[in-house]
Amino acid sequence: MSEPAQDRQRPLAVFDIDGVLADVRHRLHHLQSRPQRWNAFFLAADADPLLKEGAARLRAAQAKHDVIYLTGRPERNRALTAAWLAAHGLPTEPLHMRPDDDFRPARWVKRNTLRRLARTHTIASVLDDDPAVVAVLSADGWPVELATWLPHSSTLQSAQEQQGRT
Ligand SMILES: [Mg+2]
Predict the structure, then answer these.
(1) How far is the CA of 23 from the centre of ligand 1 (A)?
(2) Across the chain, where does the E strand assignment appear?
């Protein structure tokens, strides 16, 4: 019997979801309306098209690394997010999400989580589409790459950075 993969402690390849794997553009209009429709924005995530480039990167990373997700989506969307990942043939966990009561900008939430993970794992790579997140995580010393296949939305940027909502 070979050793289970999860016991081998392979380095981690860290993937953001929105804008890296999931195309969020069809639901941004919920955030452009006033008042913003947050529940509708999140509930529509099950219809996000898969971003092929991100999915290809993830599958390539699985050869040498343990893939984990680090998303600004709140915990209350865990079931919906896992179902979407499964529907696209992607692993559903480990899935690190924003606590429901945590409204800090995504970059600080993600930095905290990454620092915690780094106590027990080597961080091989981080892929995120938010330039503000990439800047903070790079400054923290992590090997971060900016995903550029979906132009980062100014609407989502505002939601993540000023409102701490996604
Ligand atoms: Mg993103």
Answers:
(1) 10
(2) 12-15, 66-74, 95-98, 123-128, 144-146
Nearest to 133, CA basis, from 26, 10, 15, 11: 15
Alpha carbon distances (Å) from 77 to 62, 67, 134? 24, 20, 23
Specify the CATH number of the domain 5-161: 3.40.50.1000
Domain ranges of the chain: 5-161
Report pLDDT digits (tens) over 26-53: 999 998 889 989 889 989 999 999 999 9
Distance 2 CA to ligand 1 centre (A): 36
How much distance in Å is there from the Cα of 10 to the middle of ligand 1?
A: 24
